[in-house]
């Protein structure tokens, strides 16, 4: 009997009773509360900071400034891209919302009050807001803290074959170019970031509760930054109220909470408020892209070339493997059979918050998919060809896998045409096109149909290619089987809602012939779990899930030896069938894992050199990424009089390889689709010319509600990953990656009668109306 | 989470008690009812009243009934209650249209009609609806009650005719036979403040428009009204031509500002479009006219 | 000031500052941490509780305003060891992932079903439109509420 399949989640029992433990639910005896004072300016020199009035507040225990931290050599910390970031500003502030001082008080109300008592004198400086002006000769230099830095340039990077690509473009029958912006957005999990730090002066042990997606990486970085020995640091990532990439990095507030605890000798809690979360923690995207596509007149796509200007904010804090400053953006050739491709990416500093995380996306794959899927639609308009037909004509064929892309990726497996066909069938594509034609002919209401076909690259990654700050991206797993046959799995990755406690138990159960209910999954506590790089980039199942299967197989092999002693047969004569070890050809002799476990802990005589017990440890180093894919069809209705867009239908066919718990897989896809609708239609962080953040609360940073979301229509195909132990590919982010392009393509399709070929996200009513008027605008700046 | 600064708190047990408390606590005191607008502003420290007078216990302000030829809406009537009231919806569909798009159902459970009007946010939907309806506000002060036409109630953004020490107690809406009304809003997302919105009230007698009321939200229209557009409709035969002309006049006479909801010219366009649509809907509801 | 609030049927008396928000009263004073908070502007709805039987956003209600009133939180949904049908529905239909919005969603759902035992999909979506969920795309929340409605109709 398979342990895979739909199964209620183990974690639900506590959540539906309000019994989860999130970071702000942690309450320690004597705990103090911290609050961060932030910069009101995007760019300003700090003339002076007077904390005396705050210190005099009867409930204030400590006020920490950059100067305090400089004395501890903690004023600056490394970012995930190897840059440095100010923990508390010393010289100047470089974005609105930057951390300037930290107050520790007896309660959260007093801490907040005391912020108003700190007097900071600033000397405002001109701000760099528009990334396209960051490299101007006269642009103010943001990072004058870096030795000899005289401009705002961070890096130039390229991938692919420029000469081959240019050659194709030179002789191509058709070429089309399109500028497009993937604006700055924010993952905005409903639980904000925060930490409870408890430094024990007697034992020298630091315990940090923090909703981190990467507890082990945090521990190592704290050891490196704070100089506390790593075995004296315990990071506990309790229940997390959503992460989506926002909770990968280490934020200044965490360091401040730790310093606050060291200084006061008491536990310190710091929870950011929503404005702090939106203004200062990791944003995503902010890619200004110029894409070109070359094709034959009959719709054969030959090459793509891209130039990107990447806005990284005031500190280069992008989370991605060291080798790839633009993440996996160069997977932008997508799902198509191209002869050549090339991209150039330039990263710049601006006076905005640092970050650049994989927001439900594997390291810039979202930008890549958006680029190629928009370009293909632009080409379809140019060729006057149906976008479904154009895609079908150019998709990779099943026989081409494993496929090496022009930019060097090795796609593991896929049957793309089958998936696209299923999506078109489910949507009733031909009927939709007929309806659209009828409406256009009658001058009726506008409707649009958008398609997106995406290939993800997830599960980072092979150690020889991928590391973050020198830490290889392999994950450990430990599995103990107790004498009565119940198991405890310990994994390094941490769930932010993905249901690891259920799915990973199912993997172990499947490998060992047990019930998932007999497997407890321990995660989120560095003292109790093996090392690993965490949960992001859809890597839980591809990496930790693989480690889980592998460690269970180790246990199974150990069990084989014990079973052979029980059955008085040679291990080679046993076979694993129906969840038991049995003498080959004689299933009646089968021994269950529970029987074997008891025997393994008993006085049973074991072959020489066999230690007994069944526990095992392993580390999984992925040989390659996995490549989930999917085909999405979105149908929208647009009111040209107001510019309002209504998503009428959304069909999503995902292929993520083997599905362990289809219920959980579908839930992940639902969430990602809502994210896609949000980004396409409303989510945006724009800035005015002074660098003021224009989306610093949920009143202005709009997230989709149940009303904007249609009832999602899901389909599936299954193409197992050939190299993953259980053939799974990961799915957490597929829908977020694939859906924005489908929505935008649908809206642009609806506006085709107006000659519209492209419009940047988000397609708010104002944006749609202006686009109809032929007046597209820069969505990342203040509306003029 | 953000938390408010300190303040004094008193709970009023009657209108008289509330007025006494307001007098004692002085001009820096604020009345709180639902609190779903004021308390977030206090958390963000955009509002820092020294004292709050809680009027949630004042059952005498929770009345909602037809009295003579007026619908009387107590200041403490919750949005959800007004939205659920069949009689109010029958008489004034514009009120239900507007209530349906104010914030969200949970906020509407708590927020009050009086609170919305006194908050006097230029983007507040009910202000335009009552302006279109030419309602009358009743304000109670230490010296007794006074009435203020709704179009004199709002004296500027976040400012009203309610003086320190006074309390808005009810709104009175004249019932007009043969009338129809509607409210149309464009928002970036459900529950958002409007990009722009328009309310329309038409009274049609003998096939011509006898009375017209037009309210505008979030577009810098003085007193949330569009008098030029209203005037243009009087004596006209209901129809697309008259509505479009009124829409154009309303658009020409408002003063929308560009912000992240959209540029001024888009908002101006919306005024024309939404006035036209609201008028058509109002006429349809009045039982004639419409888009024939 | 001294206040008494009845929470999940039990009266609690505490001395609080007038500015203490109801959500902090529940979480910090009573240690009922099932009620969460997620924004400052009454937009996200993860703090929804029932005040005298009606859902409100407890981040925008002062604890002193609840003096003498009744509050129900997620911890009060289960009665005598029996889960509320809505709670069962959320498990049955995978109506939650990270669990952060779940208490508020369930409390609004309970209120909706008490007023309308057979809400349509559109009515459910409208009822929860002031509450954000970042995980589920709302699909399975809607299904969970429908499951609860059908389950209650059948019993």
From TrEMBL, chain A:
One Gene Ontology MF term: anaerobic carbon-monoxide dehydrogenase activity
Pfam families, per the entry: Ald_Xan_dh_C (PF01315), MoCoBD_1 (PF02738), MoCoBD_2 (PF20256)
Record keywords: Molybdenum, Oxidoreductase
Domain called Aldehyde oxidase/xanthine dehydrogenase a/b hammerhead: residue spans: 17-126
Top-level taxon: Bacteria
EC number per UniProt: 1.2.7.4
Cofactors named for this entry: Mo-molybdopterin cytosine dinucleotide
InterPro entries with a match to the protein in the record: Ald_Oxase/Xan_DH_a/b, Ald_Oxase/Xan_DH_a/b_sf, Ald_Oxase/xanthine_DH-like, AldOxase/xan_DH_MoCoBD1, AldOxase/xan_DH_MoCoBD2, AldOxase/xan_DH_Mopterin-bd_sf, CO_Mo_DH_lsu
Protein name: Carbon-monoxide dehydrogenase large subunit
Organism field: Thermocatellispora tengchongensis
UniProtKB/TrEMBL annotation, chain B:
Domain FAD-binding PCMH-type: 2-178
InterPro entries xrefs: CO_DH_flav_C, CO_DH_flav_C_dom_sf, Diverse_Substr_Oxidored, FAD-bd_PCMH, FAD-bd_PCMH-like_sf, FAD-bd_PCMH_sub1, FAD-bd_PCMH_sub2, Mopterin_DH_FAD-bd
Family matches, as Pfam families: CO_deh_flav_C (PF03450), FAD_binding_5 (PF00941)
GO molecular function, one term: FAD binding
Keyword Oxidoreductase: yes
The protein's Enzyme Commission number: 1.2.7.4
PROSITE patterns: FAD_PCMH
Keyword terms of this UniProt record: FAD, Flavoprotein, Oxidoreductase
Protein name: Carbon-monoxide dehydrogenase medium subunit
Automatic annotation (TrEMBL), chain C:
PROSITE patterns: 2FE2S_FER_2
Keyword Zinc appears in the UniProt entry: no
Domain 2Fe-2S ferredoxin-type, residue spans: 1-77
One GO molecular-function entry: metal ion binding
Domain of life: Bacteria
Keyword Iron: yes
Enzyme's top EC category: oxidoreductase
Annotated EC: 1.2.7.4
Keywords of the record: 2Fe-2S, Iron, Iron-sulfur, Metal-binding, Oxidoreductase
Listed pathway(s): Alkaloid degradation; nicotine degradation
Record-given protein name: Carbon-monoxide dehydrogenase small subunit
């Amino acid at each position: 009997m398979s342990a895979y399949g739909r199964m209620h989640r183990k974690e639900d029992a506590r959540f539906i009773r309000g019994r989860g433990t999130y970071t702000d639910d942690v309450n320690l005896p004597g705990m103090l509360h911290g609050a961060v004072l932030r910069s009101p300016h995007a760019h300003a020199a700090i003339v002076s900071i007077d904390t005396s009035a705050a210190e005099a507040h009867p409930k204030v225990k400590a006020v920490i400034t950059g100067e305090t931290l400089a004395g501890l050599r903690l004023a600056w910390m490394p970012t995930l891209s190897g840059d440095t970031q100010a923990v508390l500003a010393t010289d100047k502030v470089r974005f609105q919302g930057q951390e300037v001082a930290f107050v520790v008080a007896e309660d959260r109300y007093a801490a907040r009050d005391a912020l108003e008592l700190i007097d900071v004198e600033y000397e405002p400086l001109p701000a760099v807001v528009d990334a396209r002006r960051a490299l101007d000769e006269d642009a103010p230099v943001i990072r004058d803290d870096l030795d000899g830095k005289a401009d705002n340039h961070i890096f130039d990077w390229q991938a692919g074959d420029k000469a081959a690509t240019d050659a194709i473009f030179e002789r191509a029958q058709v070429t089309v170019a399109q500028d497009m912006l993937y604006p700055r957005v924010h993952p905005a999990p409903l639980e904000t970031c925060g930490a409870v730090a408890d430094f024990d002066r007697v034992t020298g042990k630091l315990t940090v509760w923090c909703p981190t997606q990467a507890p082990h990486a945090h521990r190592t970085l704290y050891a490196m930054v704070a100089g506390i020995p790593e075995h004296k640091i315990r990071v506990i990532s309790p229940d997390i109220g959503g992460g989506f990439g926002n909770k990968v990095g280490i934020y200044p507030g965490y360091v401040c909470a730790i310093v606050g605890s060291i200084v006061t000798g008491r536990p310190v809690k710091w929870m950011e408020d929503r404005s702090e979360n939106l203004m200062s923690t990791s944003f995503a995207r902010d890619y200004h892209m110029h894409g070109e596509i070359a094709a034959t007149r009959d719709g054969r796509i030959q090459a793509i070339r891209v130039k990107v200007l990447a806005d990284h904010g005031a500190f280069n804090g992008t989370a991605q493997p060291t080798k790839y400053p633009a993440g996996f953006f160069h997977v932008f050739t997508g799902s198509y059979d191209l002869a050549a491709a090339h991209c150039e990416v330039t990263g710049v500093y601006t006076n905005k918050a640092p970050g650049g995380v994989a927001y439900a996306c594997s390291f810039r794959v979202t930008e890549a998919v958006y680029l190629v899927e928009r370009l293909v639609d632009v080409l379809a308009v140019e060729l006057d060809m149906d976008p479904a037909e154009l895609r079908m004509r150019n998709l990779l064929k099943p026989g081409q896998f494993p496929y090496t892309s022009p930019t060097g990726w090795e796609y593991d497996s896929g049957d793309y045409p089958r998936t696209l066909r299923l999506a078109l069938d489910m949507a009733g594509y031909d009927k939709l096109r007929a309806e659209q034609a009828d409406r256009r002919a009658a001058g009726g209401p506008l409707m649009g149909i958008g398609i997106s076909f995406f290939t993800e690259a997830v599960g980072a990654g092979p150690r020889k290619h991928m590391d973050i700050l020198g830490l290889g991206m392999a994950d450990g797993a430990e599995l103990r089987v107790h004498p009565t046959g119940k198991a405890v799995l310990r994994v390094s990755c941490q769930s932010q809602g993905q249901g690891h406690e259920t799915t990973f138990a199912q993997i172990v159960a499947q490998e060992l012939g047990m019930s998932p209910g007999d497997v407890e999954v321990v995660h989120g506590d560095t003292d109790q779990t093996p090392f690993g790089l965490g949960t992001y980039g859809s890597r839980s199942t591809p990496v930790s899930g693989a480690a889980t299967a592998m460690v269970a197989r180790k246990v199974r092999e150990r069990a084989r030896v014990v079973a052979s002693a029980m059955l008085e047969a040679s291990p080679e004569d046993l076979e694993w069938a129906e969840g038991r070890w049995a003498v080959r050809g004689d299933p009646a002799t089968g021994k269950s894992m529970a029987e074997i476990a008891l025997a393994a802990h008993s006085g049973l005589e074991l072959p020489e050199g066999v230690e007994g017990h069944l526990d095992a440890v392993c580390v999984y180093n992925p040989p390659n990424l996995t490549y989930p894919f999917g085909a999405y069809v979105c149908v929208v209705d647009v009111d040209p009089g107001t510019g309002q867009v209504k998503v009428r239908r959304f069909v999503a066919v995902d292929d993520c390889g083997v599905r362990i718990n289809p219920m959980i897989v579908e839930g992940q896809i639902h969430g990602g689709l809502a994210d896609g609708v949000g980004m396409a239609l409303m989510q945006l962080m724009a800035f005015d010319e002074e660098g003021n953040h224009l989306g610093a609360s949920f009143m202005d940073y709009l997230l989709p509600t149940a009303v904007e979301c249609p009832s999602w229509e899901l389909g599936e195909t299954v193409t197992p990953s050939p190299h993953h132990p259980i053939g799974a590919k990961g799915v957490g982010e597929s829908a977020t990656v694939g859906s924005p392009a489908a929505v935008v393509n649908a809206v642009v399709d609806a506006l085709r009668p107006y000659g519209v070929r492209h419009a940047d996200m988000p397609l708010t009513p104002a944006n749609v109306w202006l686009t109809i008027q032929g007046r597209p605008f820069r969505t990342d700046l203040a509306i003029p | 989470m953000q938390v408010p600064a300190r303040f004094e708190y008193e709970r009023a047990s009657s209108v008289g008690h509330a007025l006494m408390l307001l007098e004692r606590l002085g001009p820096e005191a604020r009345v709180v009812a639902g609190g779903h607008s004021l308390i977030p502003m206090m958390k963000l420290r955009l509002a820092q009243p020294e004292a709050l007078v809680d009027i949630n216990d004042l059952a005498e302000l929770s009345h909602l009934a037809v009295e003579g030829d007026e619908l009387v809406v107590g200041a403490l009537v919750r949005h959800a209650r007004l939205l659920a009231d069949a009689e109010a919806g029958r008489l004034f569909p514009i009120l239900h249209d507007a209530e349906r798009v104010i914030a969200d159902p949970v906020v509407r459970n708590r927020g009050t009609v009086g609170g919305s009007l006194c908050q006097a946010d230029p983007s507040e939907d009910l202000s335009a609806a009552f302006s279109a309806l030419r309602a009358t506000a009743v304000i109670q002060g230490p010296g007794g009650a006074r009435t203020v036409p709704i179009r004199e109630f709002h004296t500027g953004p976040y400012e009203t005719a309610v003086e320190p020490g006074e309390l808005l107690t009810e709104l009175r809406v004249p019932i007009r036979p043969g009338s129809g009304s509607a409210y149309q809003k464009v928002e970036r997302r459900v529950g958002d403040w409007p990009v722009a919105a328009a309310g329309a009230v038409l009274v049609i007698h003998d096939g011509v428009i006898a009375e017209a009321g037009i309210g505008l939200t979030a577009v810098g229209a003085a007193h949330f009204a569009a008098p030029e557009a209203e005037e243009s409709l009087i004596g006209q035969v209901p129809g697309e031509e008259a509505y479009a002309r009124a829409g154009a006049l309303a658009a020409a006479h408002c003063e929308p500002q560009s912000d992240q909801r959209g540029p001024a010219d888009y908002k101006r366009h919306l005024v024309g479009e939404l006035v036209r649509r609201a008028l058509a809907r109002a006429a349809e509801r009045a039982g004639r006219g419409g888009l024939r | 000031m001294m206040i008494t609030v009845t929470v999940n049927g039990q009266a609690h008396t505490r001395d609080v500052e007038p500015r203490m928000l109801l959500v902090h009263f529940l979480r910090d004073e009573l240690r009922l941490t099932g009620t969460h908070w997620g924004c400052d502007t009454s937009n996200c709805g993860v703090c929804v509780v029932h005040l005298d039987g009606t859902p409100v956003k407890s981040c925008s209600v002062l604890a002193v305003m609840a003096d003498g009133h009744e509050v129900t939180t997620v911890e009060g949904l289960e009665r005598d060891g029996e889960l509320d049908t809505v709670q069962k529905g959320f498990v049955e239909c995978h109506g939650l992932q990270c669990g952060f919005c779940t208490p508020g969603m369930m409390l609004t759902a309970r209120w909706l079903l008490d007023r309308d035992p057979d809400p349509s999909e559109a009515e459910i979506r409208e009822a929860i439109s002031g509450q954000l969920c970042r995980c589920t795309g709302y699909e399975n929340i809607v299904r969970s509420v429908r499951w609860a409605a059908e389950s209650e109709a059948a019993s």
